[in-house]
Amino acid sequence: MKVPDMNVDLGTIVESLKLLGLKNGDAVLVHSSLSSFGYVEGGSETVIKALIRCVGEEGTIVIPTLTGKREDGPDNPPVFDVRNTPCWTGRIPNEFMKDPRSKRSLHPTHSVSVIGPLTEFLIKDHENSITPCGKESPYYRLAQKGGYILLIGVNQESNSTLHTVEEIAKVPYHMQKMPTNCVIIDYNGNKSIKSLYLHDWGTPRNFQVIDNDLEKLGIMRKEKCGNSTLRLIKSIDMIEYVLNKLIHNPEYLVKK
Questions:
Q1: What gap in Å lies between CA 68 and CA 177, rounded to an integer?
Q2: By CB neighbour count within 10 A (0-12 exposed, 13-18 middle, 19+ buried), where does 45 fall?
Q3: Environment class of residue 253 by beta-carbon count within 10 Å: exposed (0-12), middle (13-18) or buried (19+)?
Q4: Which of 72, 90, 163, 195 stands the most exposed, by the fewest C-beta atoms within 10 Å?
Q5: Rounded Cα distance, 256 and 250, in Å
Q6: What is the pTM for the complete model shown?
């Protein structure tokens, strides 16, 4: 049976985010599905306004603006123009990138856009991170700062920080064996080539395996907003929990 669409406005989203535990000064990495709410008055701009209102001027919003493709690799190196390359992560990320306050990292497959005082710390040298989501990436740096992961209407399958844990654990299935010479064009139009290791898309995952445990352990909280389920996850606690699992079983996140 189809769930009827609900009308959601700015105030409703702000209230739900506050109930979830998001507060002034927080740093949060957001994966999102706009359509999951039902009908949102003002669309993706309203969701972005709600996020910024919740964390305030002292808080930081990070949104993955991913561009990586299955065919990326040494024989098909990606060309990434930070000013013009669109992302495939949805309407909210593409709208967020247009905000004049936002700045995007220069990684050719796993860039993020950021608004807030932690921007430069988070995006600095992402293009030099040898793996897309490792310890030199915004994904881990946000965790270092006590940040959160917010899943809006998507489940753990969209949680890119789980790739961070895979990269730290050096699981055998995750990265391509050879580096790729990626082409990167920065905000000034300058072109550079970076030799980086990219993801190997060949192994199906079951990231949802962690969902119940995160909630039981208090690492994650859930709320409803319209038709959408919101999940707020303490990033460093999740990383430590899943890393321990992967140390004992490197295929813990692999779909059986």
A1: 17
A2: middle
A3: buried
A4: 195
A5: 13
A6: 0.96
d(CA 70, CA 176): 11
* pLDDT class of 1 with cuts at 50, 70, 90: very low
From start to end of the chain, where are the E strands? 7-8, 27-32, 39-40, 60-64, 79-81, 103-104, 112-115, 148-152, 180-185, 191-196, 220-225, 228-234
Token duo for residue 1? 């049976």
- Is residue 52 within 8 A of residue 108, CB to CB? The reply is no
pLDDT digits (tens, 9 = 90+) for 6-42: 789 999 999 999 999 999 999 999 999 999 999 999 9
Residues 55, 116: Cα–Cα separation, whole Å: 9
Contact 39, 73 (CB under 8 A): no
